[in-house]
Design a protein that fits this description.
The structure holds 2 protein chains of 2 kinds. By secondary structure, chain A is mainly beta. Chain A has 8 helices and 37 strands. Helix content of chain B is 31%, strand content 24%. In chain B, a hairpin with a 2-residue loop joins strand 7 and strand 8. Chain B has 7 helices and 10 strands. The chains are: A mainly beta, B alpha/beta.
Chain lengths: 659, 183
């Protein structure tokens, strides 16, 4: 309930326009009335307005009208987030730089469950899915969030929050057929009683075609199925208990280059990537009294993945306790403690790729304290706090922050923040052994070796932001940042030696991983929203990013500096229009421009999506969507092996039924 | 076909008169209908002082965010067999004869005084200001995405001897806080 969307009082004054005959509204039952969608002056809830951070909220309406069929595609709508589709089942999703299939410094949570994998330090986006209609909202916080969210929330946090089961009552069935999204089927059923118990169950399955490959390969054709449930129960007026879980299986694919010590020294494999998993989460929230509450959350998450190169089986156990109190002098104090254990097993398929040891248990113990202090009531507030965290790789880490929020007028706020965040070492940094064939008669191999002394990457970030309601219908959000990074991932000084075991003889050029790089990033994100008429809404965004990553003294890593500096777009523009037409018709369009990524050999591109929606009755909804329409194919990011993958123009038709 | 043409014209001309045929109701139209429903699904105690009201007054204290919505929705209706009258008042003292009192969020700073003046009176207090139900109010409108929902603080409605029907409780978010201080 803490997260109800409350509009600021100042934003609700101007509601006189567009009066309708309301006779029909009076006919509705209370339940139906609660499901009528209304127009409001601004979608920005009070929480957003009063958050001293660069936060953006994607609402269910944004999600429904985006035409996107996956969570990473939805994130394209968020200012400052760089989403690049690598192929049909892989993405690079990054915030404020450091893009890659595994963007190491981004934390992603689904209903409070971290989906960051500690093996590769990143997110397997292809298995982060649900019925998109059941998502309540997606909150994206750009910038360091380590104080609350913990390690790896260096450049941002993506928080995916599904609906309370009270809000998913009744049945839903949805079918999609298209050129790339060849088939998507979804069902959901929700019920409950008047004693505060509600539930839903859902299922989803899809088949998606492959993107465009130079050799007409189709390794990235994929299928996926998922089942899940959520129950919410309020046994007393002060307690609420949520239990939810999902199981999934995805049969996607990837093209990988594997090196061998004997001929053929290099092998390109188009192989299946079998990923399966499940999770179970419980959360208990108790209101202790008027001004304090306590929350306990625990979850279990299992993933297993078998790629042509490597297998990984991981079980994660996590427990968190959170206490929040508002003191008599209006200070708000939050404190939390948490623990996570994550044992894994790595299955080696080739001599040339390994994680040593094969089994490892990641452990994190953390606690945090944060105080929000009103300096001038309703005008100026200061938030200070820190996370203290112990992990099995680098020991003890401190992630403090200080944030100031100044409410200038009812229509203008300014915030500023300074924070430290760390990206703790992962299995990749410390345990990797990756050997790649380079060529030669006496075969030469490059070996990248994990470093047991790898330290955390760290960031001191300073940010500032301004939000204003320029006029009744125009809202502008601006944020700017300057980030200073140290001890970034890179290669240390190389050594060369002859290796004889296992035979045959070869020359090895060995590069140890090291905290070799440092750098700065700076940027600005501007996101206006304009609703000139009740039937037309325009949303735009422009994101500018400047990166300057260099070697620290004593290092000369040209590869990772080039990759860090050249894999994130310097400029991104996006314009979204939402039209409400007569007869319940909707026409929604998006145009976006992404500047070139030299390190990925990707040129700048502009493309557009369009959606026609029609809701002839409360039960039926039809939508026809065209995606990436401006060219037959375009490249968004470099793939793992040799040639670039073209992301195709696509279209689909969806029919959704609800009752 | 005609619809398609209208759609195209809308896109080209951005002409509101053609295009706004079936827009969504505004937030406050729905809230006005809620006020009517609260009147239907809540039972007020029999008036102890024989001064029986001849009408069912619904009052708005402070700025009126409803615009014409309140009048068009409620003008010709009756509740409890009495015609609804709508009063816009500026002083809290004027609210003692209301059955339903909507308090505009601009009155947030005076909320404590307003509510203490109404203590134990059978007046349903409604608002959309933040933390209204926490601060001693009875029904607080809450926007969930683009839907208008509401939260009821039963401790406060019981204090005023108002009885809420089960239909209403079924769709409400029920909270129960015994907060006598009103802040």
């Amino acid at each position: 309930m803490a997260a109800g969307g409350l509009i600021t009082p100042s934003l609700t004054n101007a509601q006189q326009s567009g009066q309708q005959p309301v006779e029909s509204l009076k006919e509705l039952s209370l339940e139906q009335l609660g499901n009528v969608e209304v127009t409001t002056a601004s979608k920005e809830p009070e929480q957003v307005w009063k958050t001293p951070a660069a936060i953006y909220v994607l609402t269910q309406e944004d999600i429904r009208r985006s035409g996107a069929t996956s969570i990473p595609e939805l994130l394209r709508l968020v200012p400052g987030v760089a989403v690049a589709r690598i192929d049909s089942d892989h993405w690079s999703v990054s915030i404020r730089g450091f893009a890659g299939q595994f963007s190491k410094s981004l934390l992603v949570l689904i209903d409070g469950r971290s989906v960051y994998t500690p093996l590769f330090a990143g997110v397997y986006w292809q298995v982060q899915d649900t019925v998109l209609e059941d998502i309540e909202r997606i909150e994206v916080i750009r910038g360091p969030g380590g104080t609350i969210w913990g390690a790896n929330a260096v450049n941002g946090v993506i928080n995916i929050i599904t609906k309370h089961s009270r809000d998913t009552q009744g049945a839903l069935a949805s079918a999609t057929a298209g050129t790339l999204d060849q088939g998507i089927g979804e069902f959901r059923y929700g019920g409950g009683n008047d004693k505060g118990f509600n539930y839903r169950v859902y299922g989803k399955g899809f088949i998606r075609g492959s993107e465009s490959h130079a050799d007409n390969a189709n390794f990235d054709h994929w299928r996926s199925g998922q089942l899940g449930f959520r129950t919410d129960w309020s046994p007393t007026s002060t307690d609420s208990i949520t239990i939810q879980g999902d199981i999934y299986k995805s049969d996607d694919g990837e093209r990988v280059a594997v090196s061998l010590y004997s001929p053929p020294s290099r092998l390109v494999l188009d192989g299946p990537h079998d990923v399966g998993g499940g999770n179970l989460l419980g959360r208990w929230n108790r209101k202790l009294d008027e001004d304090s509450d306590l929350q306990v959350q625990a979850y279990y998450d299992r993933t297993s993945r078998f790629s042509p190169q490597l297998g990984e089986i991981r079980n994660t156990f996590d427990i968190d306790l959170l206490y929040h109190v508002k003191l008599k002098n209006n200070q708000e104090i939050s404190l939390g403690v948490g623990a996570r254990w994550s044992p894994d097993t790595v299955l080696q398929n080739f001599d040339t790729l390994d994680f040593e040891p094969h089994q490892e248990t990641d452990s994190i113990y953390s606690w945090f304290l944060q105080d929000q202090i009103p300096i001038v009531r309703d005008k100026l507030s200061l938030t200070v706090g820190s996370k203290f965290e112990h992990n099995n790789y680098s020991g003890f880490e401190i992630q403090p922050n200080a944030r100031l929020l100044w409410t200038l007028t009812n229509h203008q706020t300014i915030w500023a923040a300074i924070a430290r965040a760390v990206r703790t070492p992962s299995r990749l940094d410390q345990d990797l052994q990756l050997t790649t064939f380079l060529g030669g008669n006496l075969p030469i191999y490059l070996r990248v070796l994990g470093n047991k002394d790898f330290k955390p990457e760290n960031l001191i970030g300073s940010e500032f932001g301004y939000r204003t309601l320029v006029a009744k219908s125009l809202y502008v959000d601006v944020s700017a940042f300057y980030n200073k990074y140290d001890d970034l991932y890179g290669y240390g000084a190389g050594t060369a030696f002859v290796e004889t075991s296992p035979p045959p003889v070869r020359l090895i050029l060995q590069l140890p991983l090291a905290n070799a790089l440092k750098g700065t990033t700076a940027g600005v994100e501007i996101a206006p929203e304009w609703e000139p008429f009740e039937w037309l809404k325009l949303k735009g965004s422009y994101s500018f990013l400047h990166l300057n990553v260099n070697n620290k003294s004593g290092f000369a890593d040209a590869l990772n500096t080039a990759s860090d500096n050249g894999s994130s777009p310097h400029h991104q523009f996006e314009l979204q229009t939402l039209f409400n037409l007569p007869k319940k018709l909707e026409i929604d369009g998006t145009v976006r421009y992404v500047s070139a990524l030299p390190a990925q050999l990707v040129e700048a591109y502009t493309t557009a999506d369009i959606r026609f929606g029609w809701r002839p009755s409360a039960s039926w909804e039809f939508s026809l969507v065209g995606q990436n329409l401006l060219q037959p194919r375009h490249v968004e990011f470099g793939a793992d092996v040799d040639t670039l993958v073209g992301i195709k123009r696509a279209g689909y038709l969806n029919i959704t039924w609800r009752r | 076909m005609r619809n398609a043409w209208i759609a195209i014209v809308c896109v080209l001309l951005l002409d509101g008169s053609l295009c706004a045929q079936q827009p969504k109701p505004s937030e406050y139209q729905v809230k006005a209908v809620y006020l009517y429903n609260f009147g239907r699904f809540i039972t007020w105690p029999a008036n102890p002082d024989s001064k029986e009201l001849k009408s069912f007054p619904i009052c708005v204290l402070g700025q009126d965010p409803f615009g014409p919505a309140l009048d068009t929705t409620l003008a010709s209706e009756s509740l409890d067999h009495k015609p609804i009258v709508i009063r816009r008042i500026s002083k809290p003292q004027d609210s003692t004869e209301c059955r339903i009192l909507f308090i505009h969020s601009s009155a947030s700073n005076q909320l404590k005084e307003i509510l203490s003046a109404l203590d134990h009176l059978a007046i349903l207090t409604v608002s959309d200001m933040a933390d209204f139900s926490k601060r001693g109010g009875m029904i607080q409108f809450v926007l969930e995405g683009e839907k208008v929902r509401f939260e009821v603080n039963l401790a406060n409605t019981e204090n005023a001897n108002l009885t809420l029907s089960s239909e209403l409780l079924k769709v409400a978010r029920v909270v129960r806080r015994n907060d006598k201080s009103g802040d």
